[in-house]
Design a protein that fits this description.
This protein is mainly α. The protein folds into 2 domains: about 50 residues, no CATH class; about 40 residues, no CATH class. Helix content is about 60%, strand content about 5%. It contains 4 helices and 2 strands. The protein has a two-stranded antiparallel sheet with strand order 1-2. Helix 1 packs across helix 2 and helix 3 runs antiparallel to helix 4.
């Protein structure tokens, strides 16, 4: 793990988060998009400590409704296929093969 208190290194992540905050403020308080004041941005960047983690291993389980009834699984597969997207079709195929 590496920690950095360099505000400039955190700027890209802060920019993404600030855009989400701006959108919320725009909706709630009519703040114009893209209008975070520079002093606010600089103050926030000074307070950020970024962490960079090196992932060495990922362990995961595919939860494909194996613990559900056959009728539930058939319904889920049909629903996924009706969505029509490639990701949904891939999950439906995986669910079929997991039976």
């Amino acid at each position: 793990m590496r920690a950095s208190s360099n505000g400039q290194a955190a700027r890209p992540v802060f920019t993404d988060l600030d855009q989400a905050r701006q959108q919320l403020m725009f909706e709630l308080e009519n703040l114009k998009e893209g209008e975070s004041p520079a002093p606010y941005v600089e103050k926030q960047l000074k307070a950020i400590v970024g962490l960079e983690l090196a992932v060495e291993r990922v362990e995961a389980k595919a939860k494909l409704s194996q613990n559900r009834s056959e009728a539930d699984r058939v319904g889920v597969v049909a629903g996924l296929r009706s969505e029509g997207g490639p990701a949904e079709a891939a999950v439906a195929a995986q669910m079929d093969s997991a039976r």
